[in-house]
Structures are given as structure tokens and as C-alpha cells.
Amino acid sequence: MEPARPRVMGIVNLTPDSFSDGGRHLHAAAALARARRLLSDGAEILDLGAESTRPGAAPVPAEVEIARLLPLISALRAETDVLISVDTMKPQVARAAMAAGAGLWNDVSALRHAPDSLAAAAELGCQVVLMHMQGEPATMQAEPRYDDVVSEVAEFLADRAAAAMAAGVAREKIWLDPGVGFGKHMTRHNLPLLAGLDRIVALGFPVLLGVSRKSFISAVDGGQRPPEARLGGSIAAALAGAAAGVAAVRVHDVRETAQALKVWAAIAQAGRAG
Ligand code: HH2
After folding, report:
1. 108 in ligand 1 pocket by Cβ < 6 Å?
2. Active site residue 95
3. What percentage of the chain carries pLDDT values higher than 70?
4. Mean pLDDT across the chain, nearest whole number?
């Protein structure tokens, strides 16, 4: 039997200011072409985001997020049954996206952003990603502090899962995400968190890992690498996630990551067979 290989979630940014492929996918036709390309490259989930979480990024009103997302969701739904994830903190946006055919609410605020987030997730009955973040997107990198980053992230995620279930979200709909880069020191927090991922996996929910092109890769590699020059580090971190048993990795470079994961799984399988 093939070892459990994480699923590949391909990122489609519909934001004009996203750090790694800013502005290039703003227009619906370009976004659809990008999504199709990710699917043919091997993406098993698509994550659509219309508001950047980058520190300093301009807030986007719900109507603008919806106007950016809906044409793409509808177009994709007409041609594929791939799982569509929507990266938003706003319940109104999640409602509109699920009505148009999305199936996963990826909420970097872990359903804390709006007072009705928990109730909306329960009512929608969709899958939901609960991500750890210390602070708010605008200021989270100012001075993040932890005594024990792995324990604190695990405790937060267990609490949010409990809150979601208490609000009526079914256990089997819940994913957890350690939130690499969200209120974490570049190396002092992100690296121990990645080293301790097995403890997040041990909470018993599928884990989503987002490491693709993130700044800690540049910090480890000398400090001057722009996002598109972080592929090697992105793959290394995705493989660390695979070894820890994560269920999915959120990536920009789908083809290369899918290949790395296939080779990783094939080697693991050969080791077991031999
Ligand atoms: N990272 C980013 C955005 N959304 N969602 C989850 N669940 N996990 C993550 O690690 C995560 C996320 C940031 O990456 P990106 O989308 O490339 O940038 P931007 O936020 O500027 O769109």
C-alpha cells in the first residue's frame, strides 16, 4: 500500500497585492487559466483567495471579495468537481462561495474574525480549516512571543476545534493548520513548529500545511531570496510535512511539489516492501 501522501492544494490568488504573484491573476480569465494549469499540474484541491493576509495589505470589503471569487468558482464548477477552497475570514464571503459550489472554508482566523463565524460554518456544513495565528495580519510579525511554540499552537488548535464542534461543526469537517509565518519569528518559531508537526497531526484532525515561498525559507538561505526563488526550500518544508503525516500542502508550484511527494512516497513504499 502506498504511504499516505499529502494532497496538493494549488493556490490561486485573486488579489492585486499578494506577495508572491501579485496582481497577475486578478482578471477572471487569467485566474481561470491559472486554475486549469494547476489542475493539469496535479492539484487535488484549489485554494482561491481574494484578500491578502500580508502585513500591510489593504483590507478588502466582502462585496469585492465576492465579486472576485464568484465568477471563478462558477466557471470551475462548470468544468470540474475538484474540491474548491476559499481563503477568507468573512462569513458573508464563505456563504456566497459555498452557494456557488465551493466546499472548504479556509479561515486563517480560525472562525474568530466575525461574531457569527462559528455559527456560519455549522450552518453551511462545509469543511473548514482552522489556522493558528498570533495577533492580527497587519501587526502579527511585530513581536511574536511564545514560551513553547509547538505546545501553544497545538493547544490553540485543539481549543478552536472544540469551539467549532460545540457550535455544531461536525468533527469530520475540521482541518487544522499550524499557520507557518502567521505571528511567528522567521526562524525561532517557524522552524521548531515544523520540527514538531507530528504533535499537531497527533490531535487527530487532517492537517493543512502552508509553507510555499514563505519568508523563513529566505531567512534560512541567506536572507535575500525573492518568493519565486524559494522553490527548493518550499519542497524541503513540504516533505518535512509529509514525513510528519500532514494531509495536504498549500503550494504555488504544484507540478514540482506533486513530483517531490510522489518520489518521497515511492521511496517510503520501497523501504517497506524491501
Ligand atoms: N498562508 C497564506 C494564506 N493563506 N491559509 C492557510 N490555511 N495556511 C497558510 O499557511 C496560508 C493561508 C499566505 O500565502 P499566500 O496566499 O501566498 O499569500 P497572500 O496571503 O499574500 O495571498
Report:
1. yes
2. no
3. 95
4. 94
